[in-house]
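Pasting as-is:
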Amino acid sequence: MAPSSESTPRSTVVALVGPDSEELLSDLADVPAVQALTLREAEPAAATRAVAAASRPYVVHDADPLEHVGAAWVELYEERATLGTLEIEVETFLRLFEAGEALMPDYYVVVGPETIEGTWRHWWLGALAHRAPSRVLPVEASGAALRARLRALPVSRPWPDPAWLKRVHFDIPDRVGLRDQAGAA
């Protein structure tokens, strides 16, 4: 995020995730209010510093701070990892977050959700979106759709404290969020 100085306006931070995100990120280079950063391979602390140093109103990047947590969650439900693996990834993220070396973006924009294979769709649009539905936004995999989405980001409550991640293993694919809907069994 932006430096903590009271006089420096804070940038709106958007994590662009999903297939084709790299190409769409590069298409934002000519948008004056957007600073597009390729940070996917960066260490969390380096990505956090790059985002904090941004000076434009919108920072769009491809570094998912919850990538390892999401991968462990996906692998748990695909029976390729254990609950312990997920717990380690959650604790690692929470330590980084507390130390200021990882941050949650204001929004996740999920590119081409219809093309996302398997359990990953349930991670981004289920487990993650369940915590802040207006902060996880699907978008068609086109530059025009992405630009339109960025122009119309909804105003909503911020992300809850990331301590919710300690219970993310209870968010079951195909069921997450259903218990809170009227008529759900």
